Known about the structure:
A four-stranded antiparallel sheet has the order 1-2-3-4, with no helix packed on it. It has two domains: about 1-40; about 40-110, Beta-lactamase Inhibitory Protein, Chain:B, domain 1, CATH 3.30.1450. The chain is built from three helices and four strands, in the order H-H-H-E-E-E-E. It has helices at about 5-35, 45-50, 55-65, and strands at about 70, 80-85, 90-100, 100-110. The chain is of the alpha+beta class and about 110 residues long.
Amino acid sequence: MHAAEAAGAGREVIARLFARLLAAGAVASALAVAACSTTCTATNDKLANLRRGMTAAEATQVMGCSGQPVAPATPGEGFSSLAWQGPGTVATETQLDFEAGRLLWYVTVPRGAL
């Protein structure tokens, strides 16, 4: 094999490896997007089905999963909060506030807001 042929063969091997890496990256990206889309988040439809006075279990059922605890029950007062991402974007968060295990209200705010 001549040097030019060897160089061409080497480039071909590298090109095939690069194409495989790109394909693997595309598959990994698609899987990540699919995982994000199946994450339990707040939606406008879910929020429309919440009612003041619902139990925390009923509200969690409406939301489709348990939210992230924001504030544990305050000893002696019974206040607690759960949060979900959304609706609409990862930059928003919806927080449900409960007193004595019953829904008081919910609020949607930008994440990281003061």
